[in-house]
Amino acid sequence: MIPHPPLTPIAWALVCLTCAPDVFAQPPAELPAITVTADKQERVLESVPASLSVFDGDMLESQGIQNVEALQTITPGLSFQPFGQAGVNSPVMRGLSANFFSFSTSTLLVVDGVPTLTAQGYDNQMLAIDRVEVLRGPQSTLYGRNAEAGVINIHTRQPDNTLRGQVSAEIGSRDLRVTRFDLSGPLVEDRLYASVAGAWRSQNGFIDNTYTGKREDDRELRNGKLALRWTPSASTDATLRYSQVDYRDGAALWGSPSAPRATVASGTPSWNHSIGRSASLAVQHDFDSGLRLSSVTAWNDFRDRVQQDTDFLPADLLHIARDHHFSNLSQELRLEGDWKRAHWLVGLYADGDDHDLINTQKMPRGLTESVVNLRGNSTAAFTHWTVPLAERWTVEAGARVERDQIRFRPQGDSQRRADWTRVTPRLAVQYAFAPRQQVYASVSDGFRAGGFNVFSPAANYAAYQPETLRSYEIGAKGWLAGNRLRYSSAFYVMTVKNMQVQQMPLPGLVYVTNAASARSIGAEFELEYLLGDGWSMQAGLGLNRTRFSSFMDGSADYSGNQNPFAPRINGYLSARYDAPAGWYAQASLTGTGSVYLDAANRYRRNGYGLINLAAGVTVRQVEISAYVNNLANRRYDAVGYQNGIVTVYSPPREAGLRFTWRI
Question: Which helix (H) or strand (E) holds 458?
Fold first, then answer.
């Protein structure tokens, strides 16, 4: 008898898929209602007059969405600049983005009330997630600076009286190994609760270093979260949270445009040893009068410690190094209530930045080091009103007054100061033309704070002004087909003034200028449909055209060019089948159009489409799932990043197997 070879893990998964018992019921007959807090009050999703995507934690887990950057695969209108370093992401929303060295973002990230105001530390590992809300369009009225194009709001699951927990282990391509866990429950019934979550991830790189004979871009990450919740009474709720993430990576996904793909010959060590920490205290109290007082105290700290070879040769001709320490402390107070038929909210906000920045550049002529301290603070007052005008008409209005101050001191030089005061209003009207069917129109202002070119001494550290915009939007959303289909659509026009654009005329010389004005025109569509017999479908499409209306930088005229990093189209289509026997299978197509990498539109990353497949089965408390991402192994490198000197490589196809045990 010829012995059978041992089954591989993938084969075991296929056996389980075909032999699973009948443990699952059919999916629900209609879509569930969704409650959101996008405008800082609890509301049904369809009643918010704005373009808004919501993803619950179970959906993100089933789709394999394990970090913020992966949200671009399921969110129309959202993408990220190609950069290739873990822990640093610059979002692009509705064609608007921000340069890494402006130390600001166009889309604000808020995790359990903790704001992230820079691309450095713009990350989250999606542990124990309750839901993620992606709000598109200017949100400066409620969220302030750096929310000019939108907000990504991440809510971690609150610990309560229910004991919950799960542990998962994952193996995959390039020796991928992942362990994730979360556990929450009561310490004292009805009074004190706690949760703990963590993740460890390790994977070999795919960029060959022909000089050392090793892979250059290995990845390792450790992440942990703790939460303690206290409810001394039915009217008071307080939650203390702490989170930390450590990156122990090799080089960024960079190489030379003239070298063979995914190959370098670097003799200079490249690494990323960054660490991020955050803490928050959220307190909410409901008064007998019906008023609600909310307080969020937040601390966000990120240490961006990186060395990266940029000549990709054995000799140390060009490299960069950063030791940037970003720290922000913020406090927000909100009071809300009802007056007759209207719901109102007023709030105060204050924060302080303290950034110590050390930037090193190795050039053929020698080594230069810039040491600067960047401090700033913001103070703001804001209000938001929701007023029913008639049976089917509702108007929303709000405004924010914010003052931002910056103090910048280069080592061995005098201190420089700048300050700005902005008023950002918002007005929206909504009409319910049928049960659970809404149309709306809105006009709103947004802005991104100004700053200094802190690493451009040749330009005397020139200051640049805040970027401002006005947005006009109309949309429709609602339910159809017996509440089995949920849809939304939005159309917008935005005019941008004092647009902040990064320029890099020479290697090592990077600055931000206000030379541009621009117009952004686009549309977004989303659809979720329960087809019946276990089948469901999700789809989204974002269309955008963002071009410079006028842009003169010295003698160069970039008028009419496309804004860098802004795709004209992105979208996704996903289909899933849940069988009565307890197994599932899903397939998705996600893609984005080409993007230019510079204001002159000389360099670009081509558009691409990716096919992802997944299947799994649940037996009692254990789920076994297998997946393949980028099935066709498509390449979408950003060739010519940093004014032509760098290629940012796209990752190859990945396959894996995941085991999850749930309490």
Answer: none
Tokens representing residue 410 in the block: 């280069």
**In the prediction, which pLDDT does 516 show?**
81
pLDDT along the chain (663 residues), means of 10: 37 35 50 90 90 94 92 96 94 92 92 94 94 96 94 96 96 97 97 98 98 97 98 97 98 96 96 98 96 98 96 93 96 96 96 95 87 95 95 95 94 90 96 93 95 78 90 96 94 95 71 87 97 94 95 86 95 96 95 94 95 95 96 96 91 97 93
* Cα–Cα distance measured from residue 71 to residue 107, given in angstroms and rounded to the nearest whole number: 13
Question: Are 247 and 87 within 8 A, CB to CB?
Answer: yes
Tell me the C-alpha to C-alpha distance, in Å, between residue 152 and each of 81, 124, 478.
Answer: 16, 11, 22
CA dihedral defined by 591, 596, 602, 603, rounded to 10 degrees?
A: -60
| Residues 146/450, Cβ–Cβ less than 8 Å | no
Structure tokens at 128: 């124990």
Give the DSSP H or E segment for 305. Answer: strand 292-309
Q: How does DSSP assign 326-379, residue by residue?
A: EEEEEEEEEEEEEETTEEEEEEEEEEEEEEEEEEEEEETTEEEEEEEEEEEEEE
Give the chain's count of helices (H) and strands (E). 4, 43
The conformation of residue 565, written as its DSSP 8-state character, comes to T
| pLDDT for position 56 | 93
Q: Which of 376, 378, 386, 328 is nearest to 348 (CA)?
A: 378
Question: Residue 505: what pLDDT?
Answer: 66
Regarding pTM above 0.85, the answer is yes
| Distance, CA of 502 to CA of 18 (rounded, Å) | 54
pLDDT the model gives residue 644: 87
Contact 302, 121 (CB under 8 A): yes
d(Cα 625, Cα 628) in Å, to the nearest integer? 11
Q: Biggest alpha carbon distance in the chain?
A: 86
Gap between the Cα atoms of 65 and 125, Å rounded: 9
Identify which of 579, 488, 479, 477 has the alpha carbon closest to the alpha carbon of residue 536. 579
Please report the pLDDT score of residue 453 as a whole number.
87
Q: Is the dihedral of CA 115, 119, 120, 124 positive or negative?
A: positive
Q: How far apart, in whole angstroms, are the C-alpha atoms of residue 124 and residue 155?
A: 11
From CA 318, how far away is CA 644, in angstroms rounded?
14
20: left (phi over 0), alpha (psi -120 to 50) or beta: beta
Burial 388-401 (b: 16+ CB within 10 A, else e): eeeeeebebebbbe
Residue 511's φ and ψ, nearest 5 degrees, are -150, 160
Q: What is the pLDDT of residue 28?
A: 57
Residue 513 pLDDT: 85
Q: Which residues contact 645 (CB under 8 A, 6 or more apart)?
A: 256, 257, 310, 507
CA distance linking residue 567 with residue 498, whole number of Å: 21
SS3 string, 92-104, reads: EECCECCCHHHCC
Angle at 502 between CA 501 and CA 508, to 5 degrees: 165
Tell me how far the alpha carbon of residue 603 is from its chain's centroid: 25
Q: Distance (Å, rounded) from C-alpha 90 to C-alpha 79? A: 9
End-to-end CA distance of the chain: 43
Phi, psi of 67 (to 5 degrees): -155, 170
Q: Are 292 and 286 in contact (CB under 8 A)?
A: yes
